[in-house]
What does this fold into?
Amino acid sequence: MREIDVHQITEHVAAAVQTLNFDTPPPVLDQLSDVLHREISPTGREAMRAIVANRQLAMVRRVPMCQDTGMAIVFVTLGQEVHLTGGDLTAAITEGVRRGYRAGYLRNSVVAEPLFERKNTRDNTPPMIHYQLVPGEELRLTVACKGFGAENMSWAKMLTPAEGLAEVKRQVVACVEAAGPNACPPIVVGVGVGGTLEVAALLAKRALMRPVGDRHPDQRYAALEMELLDLVNATGIGPQGWGGEHTALDVRVEYAPTHIAAIPLAINLDCHLQRHMDIVV
It folds into this structure.
């Protein structure tokens, strides 16, 4: 049995939400720079030049790379041999978000209730937290700051088995085409297939949390990811919707077992910011 004081978690999360809004990891910056050099559309290349310059400026000046500093989403993978001390884990994560957004002077974008008053909570809490219990003594948090330009363009559908793989491909491309420039391309496309309606949506979100260049271990799904990337980029929407060959940086697919009567499908879009990171305690 391993003990972890939840106050450590608060400190890690507070630092993470600032890092995610100010800093671009080298693999992501390399990917964006590569797209800049390979994009053949003059307007698309100009958009990429602005994107790369914005990232570099944010790091130097310690200012947010986007005015939408995101809603905090945290995936918690908790080893069942971990004993948490010092308080409640959910409260500790929430306090980390609160402190980080305050210290970083980041925009507060969360409302307490969605339909009537829509009153801002003024500290960007609560975060959306998803828990998974696993064997072992490790606590891992994947922290994301998800902007809603791309989130607003995401889809969930219930397909019939007869519609099959062809309809999954069609829906992914249709979702990207409907989003157009509104998701701030070049985007990352997360696809969740199977489970139930809510599981498919969670799979799509988890797919976005993969590192740059990480392919699905099942070769069938890895091949599907590459095919979908080609199909999406063939739309010609291009960087920021200005036209070009790079509408998406990547497409990532996750799946789960499902019922014989359906193919649950969710498509979760992420903008080029890709603000997520892992914390291992």
